[in-house]
């Protein structure tokens, strides 16, 4: 889809009440099922959000309840993405701190102390 068409559609959608927007979504999903061009959400949280939204629409809940719930789930998804990014940053910093700089000589490996050598038994002594 070209950008001009996308912008034109978005302008029209933004002017509609949510109930009409869900009707348009139903029509788009009908076209996808008819022509086999359904796009699948990529992330697990996006799939959960769509499943919850579809379930609520099937139950004929009001559009305000659906959009409110979708908004909460979307907020949770953004929070999880932020937490994942923060965790990745911590891991990256830990790896960076543990990796010696290029050209640095690694410290000698510590060897465990060897047990004391046992002396061979003296001739004539037991054991």
Based on the model shown, name its key terms.
single chain, 127 residues, 0% strand
Show the helix and strand layout:
Elements: H1 3-14, H2 18-35, H3 44-58, H4 63-98
Helix pairs in contact: 3-4
Short synopsis of the structure:
With 127 residues, the chain is mostly helical. The protein is 64% helix and 0% strand. Among the domains are: 7-39, no CATH class; 44-98.
Would you write up a description of this structure?
The chain has 127 residues and is mostly helical. Among the domains are: 7-39, no CATH class; 44-98. The chain is 64% helix and 0% strand. It contains 4 helices and no strands. It is elongated and about 105 Å long. The model has no long low-confidence stretch (mean pLDDT 79).
Assembly state of the chains shown: single chain
Instruction: Supply the helix-strand structural class.
Output: mainly alpha
Shape: elongated
Strand content: under 5%
């Amino acid at each position: 889809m070209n950008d001009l068409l996308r912008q034109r559609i978005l302008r029209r959608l933004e002017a509609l009440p949510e109930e009409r927007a869900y009707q348009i979504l139903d029509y788009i999903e009908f076209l996808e099922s008819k022509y086999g061009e359904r796009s699948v959400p990529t992330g697990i949280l996006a799939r959960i959000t769509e499943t919850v939204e579809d379930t609520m629409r099937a139950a004929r809940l009001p559009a305000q309840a659906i959009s409110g719930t979708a908004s909460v789930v979307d907020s949770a998804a953004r929070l999880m993405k932020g937490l994942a990014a923060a965790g990745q940053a911590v891991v990256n910093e830990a790896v960076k701190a543990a990796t010696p700089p290029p050209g640095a000589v690694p410290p000698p490996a510590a060897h465990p102390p060897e047990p004391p050598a046992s002396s061979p038994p003296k001739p004539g002594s037991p054991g």
